[in-house]
């Protein structure tokens, strides 16, 4: 089904050429809104931890998917950038950044965040030749080379000095141009240097640069500055970007070269792309993607009238991260990014959903469109449409096409909502065979959902209301047999609503209905039936059977709406079901196909799934993976060439299974920040908190940048949390008023494909005891008591004894009062003054036990301040603390009953417990609390919903039972809160 043009239009042709052609999904802009310090981005890199680094003309930036950290020059500081304008950046062994600035060369140690600077010093031998550094390169021998506006430098890193290779004007020897732009090594490990004046080779024996005519006498290199260079893996050639000429492919062994002119000759840089492509940066002509194997190219440019094109036409370079995203650094537009994985799917829009698909022997694709008639796309991409015309009896009988099959003469039989139509593909002629109750060979129902022709030439019609009809070819003599559902007759059809009729390789007839699955038994002229039994998990999981797949191993797979996927052994009649436990997140599935590797593909109401029968595991694909729509219909087919085609609600999806992998790589997960009382601390293996430092927040990130908002997280503070806390998309954890002791913080993350990875980073947290609870304080208390007892025993004077006893009593009272105050402080949140999570845990156990005894409902409201991190970032942490106090006070004051309980759960989250309150009552309270926060009218310019501080609320309620715990109720409220925030925030959602 690889059409040159047509089917999917130009898109399929483009897909054959890979990333070198325009992506089907748009470019995304990335810049100031994400916190980038400048719109002129000169280079991009990704370190071994997984952070992305952007060098700009306004400083150095690090991105973790949520927060941008910026380093800029700080006057009078030694540990700082030499200059904010960074011209070039090189990542060294994943741990060190070398930065070429307008103020010298900087070495940045990523782990310690320390800068070391090297500058030009006039008249000082061994210093850098010029402070404007244009290129940095680490060669295969470990030498560091630094190109500047005034010559080439080789660094002695042990001494911090440089040997200079200058340009000598008027000389035919040495560096060809004053400004060094690029360096690369050929297959023999020889270093080639491109400059504003041409191309040179470093001669290691003579320790000098040889110009191109010196290396290859009699040959002249194309005129123009050499702005970029690289060698592709497995290729002996050097590729060079030459200003004013184009791409040059050089044979470094003999000096022969070939020039490839491009759409713009202002070439500025060269990077390696996907699948052997070259990414050519231009100074005003956009990004050119060149494919060496074909000598073809495509240019991406900025369109000022569209937001989904390249951000700017001046391009510095490109970079592909570990997740596969393509990032483009531009001069003035920030960064553009594109996900090439989204080319795994191709999409053909239609005017309606696609219930059926068929491919004829000539390779044509036939598409039945609901209310859109029949569409043919031939192998040359030519499209033709058949539709119903009430005035033309030679038109289709109805525009709702439910099924397509082909007879032995090559005619197409269409089951429609108005009977049957027969199309002759050779002539385009149409015949109708409509329902006529008076005719002997008529169908009993005008809605035909399925049609099959068996090996004997008999036609099997599956109808919407009237079961199955078997007859000879319509128009020929012979009896017709009508099979109907009858609960009183064993072996009858399970239901009269038929979804499909299918003949397997053994010529058996299968019927899928709305009441179960049936297998026709010709010896008895009846059916063996499989139905759903809620008491027996070995039966069908649903009676709505939408399709059947017989795979290459002879296994039968049953697709059900409401039950997921089942495997049937027709010999034994045994069923094995696969659903939510195996990873299928939607049980409403419509069709299944098998690819050439034996992988099953299942189309559902909520995404596309691949299923590996050996491991019994599902992999879900959604719009984040490039699907244009996540909802499918029943049409599907496997083409003769192996592509899989699925019908959707608004078009046809074509899948190239070879481009898809069963499992994504695990993301790198990093601890990005640790804050104590709102102030960041250095990230180290161990952190000690004083007894007054009663609030610590851990921030973390799964460094997969495809869609960070959909990354998932879980964490655990060992010694405090008994199990892992499933945090959803929240990427931070806050703990307050921890008891003295030692804890260990662990965390893990998942990318949008829900591939999980636990971080190798852990942090040991030690909380010191308060002075009055320390061991020496307890020892002092004991010493006082012993002394008093001794004095009491030795005293002979009653008055003296009484005084000492009184003193001891006073001391005891003071100690009890201090302990009481300490216990009270331990149960109150140090910032907001309302109960904390420890107090909540105590209250939970008591209220849950009481509600269980009294059989009364219990409700929980989980609330989250909307866009609070943006509030903190914009207004500052002091304002954020004030906001938390105001919200906490308002929530607590808005509860009308003394039995209601409000606590700070952590960070910007609050929990309210409602005694003897059902779900509806809890929802009313939630809306009242949301309104009370609205009435505060606290400005929030960075809010995504409204212009003031708001909350989102998740509500759950139930009557406790012995087989459930409060954790279940809390998780329901947390999920409802997630739905409220996903729906746009500033909303109340109830669970269930």
Could you walk me through the main structural features you see in this protein, from its secondary elements to its overall organization?
The protein is mainly beta and 992 residues long. The strands form 17 sheets. Strands 59, 61, 62, 64, 65 and 66 form a 6-stranded mixed sheet that branches. A 5-stranded mixed sheet has the order 68-69-67-70-71, with helices on both faces. Helix 6 crosses helix 7 (877-893). It starts with 9 loop residues before the first helix and ends with a strand.
Per DSSP E runs of 2 or more residues, the count of β-strands stands at 71
Strand content: 35-45%
Q: What's the story with the biggest beta sheet?
A: 6 strands, mixed
Q: What is the mean pLDDT?
A: 89
């Amino acid at each position: 089904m690889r059409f040159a043009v047509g089917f999917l239009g130009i898109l399929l042709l483009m897909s054959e050429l890979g990333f070198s052609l325009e992506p089907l999904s748009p470019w995304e802009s990335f810049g100031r809104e994400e916190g980038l310090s400048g719109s002129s981005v000169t280079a991009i890199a990704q370190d071994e931890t997984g952070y992305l680094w952007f060098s700009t003309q306004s400083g150095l930036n690090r991105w973790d998917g949520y927060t941008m950290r910026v380093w800029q020059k700080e006057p009078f500081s030694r540990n700082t950038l030499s200059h904010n304008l960074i011209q070039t950046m090189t990542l060294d062994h994943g741990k060190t950044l070398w930065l070429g600035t307008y103020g010298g060369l900087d070495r940045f140690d990523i782990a310690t965040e320390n800068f070391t600077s090297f500058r030009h010093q006039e008249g000082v031998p061994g210093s850098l030749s010029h402070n404007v550094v244009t290129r940095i390169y680490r060669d295969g021998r470990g030498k560091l080379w630094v190109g500047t506006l005034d010559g080439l430098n080789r660094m002695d890193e042990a001494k911090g000095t440089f040997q200079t290779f200058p340009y000598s004007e008027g000389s035919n020897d040495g560096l060809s141009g004053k400004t060094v732009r690029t360096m690369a090594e050929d297959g023999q490990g020889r270093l080639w240097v491109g400059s504003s004046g041409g191309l040179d080779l470093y001669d290691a024996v003579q320790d000098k640069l040889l110009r191109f005519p010196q290396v290859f006498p009699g040959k002249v290199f194309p005129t123009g500055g050499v702005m970029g260079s690289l060698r592709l893996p497995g290729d002996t050639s050097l590729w060079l970007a030459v200003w004013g000429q184009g791409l040059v492919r050089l044979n470094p062994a003999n000096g022969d070269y070939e020039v490839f002119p491009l759409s713009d000759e202002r070439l500025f840089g060269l990077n390696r792309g996907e699948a052997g492509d070259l990414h050519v940066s231009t100074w005003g002509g956009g990004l050119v993607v060149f494919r060496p194997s074909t000598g073809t190219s495509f240019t991406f440019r900025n369109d000022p009238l569209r937001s989904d094109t390249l951000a700017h036409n001046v391009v510095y370079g490109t970079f592909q991260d570990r997740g596969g995203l393509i990032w483009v650094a531009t001069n003035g537009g920030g960064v553009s990014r594109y996900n090439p994985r989204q080319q795994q799917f191709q999409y053909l829009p239609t005017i309606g959903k696609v219930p059926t698909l068929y491919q004829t022997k000539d390779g044509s694709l036939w598409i039945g469109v609901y209310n859109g008639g029949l569409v043919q796309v031939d192998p040359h991409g030519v499209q033709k449409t058949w539709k119903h015309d009430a005035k033309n009896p030679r038109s289709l009988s109805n525009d709702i096409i439910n099924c397509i099959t082909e007879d032995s003469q090559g005619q197409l039989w269409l089951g429609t909502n108005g009977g049957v139509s027969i199309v002759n593909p050779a002539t385009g002629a149409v015949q109708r065979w409509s329902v006529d109750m008076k005719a002997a060979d008529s169908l009993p129902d005008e809605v035909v959902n399925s049609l099959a022709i068996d090996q004997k030439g008999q036609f099997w019609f599956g109808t919407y209301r009237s079961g199955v009809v078997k007859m000879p070819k319509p128009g020929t003599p012979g009896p017709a047999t009508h099979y109907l559902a009858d609960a009183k007759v064993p072996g009858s059809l399970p239901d009269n609503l038929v979804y499909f009729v299918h003949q397997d390789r053994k010529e058996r007839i299968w019927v899928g209905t709305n009441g179960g699955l049936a297998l026709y038994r010709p010896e008895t002229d009846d059916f063996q039936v499989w139905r759903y039994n809620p008491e027996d998990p070995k039966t069908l999981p649903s009676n709505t059977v939408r399709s059947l797949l017989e795979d290459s191993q002879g296994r039968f797979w049953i697709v059900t709406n409401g039950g997921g996927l089942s495997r049937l052994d027709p010999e034994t009649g045994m069923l094995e079901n696969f659903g939510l436990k195996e990873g299928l997140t939607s049980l409403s599935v419509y069709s299944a196909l098998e690819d050439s590797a034996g992988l099953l593909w299942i189309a559902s109401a909520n995404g596309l799934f691949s299923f590996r029968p050996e491991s019994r595991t599902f992999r879900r694909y959604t719009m984040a993976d490039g699907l244009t729509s996540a909802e499918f219909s029943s049409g599907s087919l496997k083409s003769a060439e192996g592509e899989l085609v699925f019908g959707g609600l608004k078009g046809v999806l074509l899948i190239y299974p070879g481009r898809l992998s069963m499992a994504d790589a695990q993301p790198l997960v990093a601890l990005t920040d640790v804050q104590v009382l709102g102030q960041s601390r250095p990230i180290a293996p161990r952190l000690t908190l004083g007894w007054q430092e009663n609030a610590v927040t851990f921030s973390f990130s799964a460094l997969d940048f495809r869609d960070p908002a959909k990354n998932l997280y879980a964490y655990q503070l060992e010694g405090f949390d008994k199990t892992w806390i499933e945090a959803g998309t929240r990427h931070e954890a806050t703990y307050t008023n921890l008891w003295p002791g030692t804890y260990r913080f662990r965390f893990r993350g998942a990318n949008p494909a829900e591939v999980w990875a636990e971080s190798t980073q852990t942090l040991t947290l030690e909380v010191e005891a308060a002075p009055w609870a320390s061991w020496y304080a307890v020892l002092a208390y004991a010493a006082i008591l012993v002394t008093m007892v001794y004095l009491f025993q030795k005293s002979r004077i009653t008055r003296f004894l009484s005084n000492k006893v009184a003193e001891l009593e006073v001391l005891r009272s003071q100690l009890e009062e201090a302990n009481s105050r300490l216990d009270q402080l331990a149960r109150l949140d140090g910032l907001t003054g309302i109960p904390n999570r420890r107090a909540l845990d105590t209250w939970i156990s008591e209220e849950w036990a009481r509600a269980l005894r009294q059989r009364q409902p219990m409700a929980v409201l989980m609330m989250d301040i909307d866009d609070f991190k943006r509030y903190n970032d914009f207004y500052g942490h002091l304002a954020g603390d004030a906001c938390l106090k105001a919200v906490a006070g308002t929530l607590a004051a808005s509860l009308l009953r003394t039995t209601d309980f409000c606590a700070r759960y952590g960070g910007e989250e609050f929990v309210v417990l409602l005694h003897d309150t059902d779900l509806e009552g809890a929802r009313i309270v939630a809306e009242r609390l949301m309104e009370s926060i609205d009435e505060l009218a606290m400005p929030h310019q960075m809010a995504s919903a409204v212009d003031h501080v708001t909350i989102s609320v998740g509500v759950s309620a139930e009557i406790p039972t012995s087989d459930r715990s409060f954790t279940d109720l809390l998780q329901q409220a947390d999920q409802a809160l997630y739905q409220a925030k996903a729906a746009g925030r500033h909303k109340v959602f109830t669970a269930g």
